[in-house]
Specification:
- With 224 residues, the protein is mainly alpha-helical.
- The protein has eight helices and three strands; from the N terminus they run βββαααααααα.
- The radius of gyration is 37 Å and the shape is elongated.
């Protein structure tokens, strides 16, 4: 769940000439506030760990949660890409009209998850008479999407298991065939047949090495 909405970034330069990156953001529960602007490096929990006692302080935990919303947006901004949304874009939700989506965006709500997680205060600011119903629809849409994704993962897993079983069956069939008499290398079969021919030993044209060796052994015993 998102904790803040990142609204933008900017860069300034300090007295030493080094660049300083700033992040603009608003709380998820109050997107229409004036907002906040802080140095990006001051928002990274790695830079405050070790201060004021234990690393797992409440401040570090709070900053860690916020940084999860800031970091991907900051990375995108640094790479010149569009700042990503923390969730499913409203445009991907067929449950609302473009006009309704625009009203949500005007109040800082840009994702289906944000509609689902609206507080009473946010609903009051959204100028839609059916905002509570839309919130329930958003919840149902996301639950169905999660169920569909889970079903897709299960289907993919079943397909992989079936493919593996098919490959194992093929390997077992090849091994079984290789272990059957008469499938040894042709050069050995031909050599045994030639030896039988030389000694006048009769054999079936489909006889394999095992049978040919048996005939040769019988012939030697008779000769003895």
């Amino acid at each position: 769940m998102a904790h803040i909405i990142v609204t933008g970034f900017r860069q300034t330069y300090g007295a030493d000439g080094k660049p300083i990156d700033w992040v603009k953001w608003v709380p998820i529960h109050s997107p229409q506030t004036m907002g906040n602007e802080d140095r990006v490096d001051h928002m990274n929990p790695e830079n405050i760990k070790g201060r004021d006692g234990a690393n797992q302080s409440e401040k570090v935990a709070y900053m860690t949660a916020i940084w999860k919303d800031i970091e991907p947006a900051y990375t995108a901004w640094r790479e010149g890409r569009e700042i990503p949304l923390n969730g499913t874009p409203l445009a991907a939700w067929p449950g609302i009209t473009p006009e309704q989506a625009e009203i949500f965006r005007l109040t800082g709500i840009r994702t289906v998850e944000a509609v689902r997680d609206m507080t009473e205060l946010q609903r009051a600011k959204v100028r839609l008479p059916n905002s509570r119903d839309l919130q329930e629809l958003a919840k149902a849409f996301l639950e169905n999407s999660d169920a569909a994704k889970a079903a897709q993962r299960e289907a993919e897993k079943d397909r992989q298991i079936a493919d593996m079983a098919e490959r194992m069956a093929a390997m077992e069939a090849m091994l079984e065939q290789a272990m059957k008499p008469g499938v040894e290398p042709d050069d050995e079969t031909e050599a045994l047949r030639a030896e039988c021919d030389a000694k006048g030993i009769k054999y079936h044209h489909k006889a394999g090495p095992a049978k040919l060796r048996e005939l040769l052994s019988d012939n030697e015993q008779e000769a003895a």
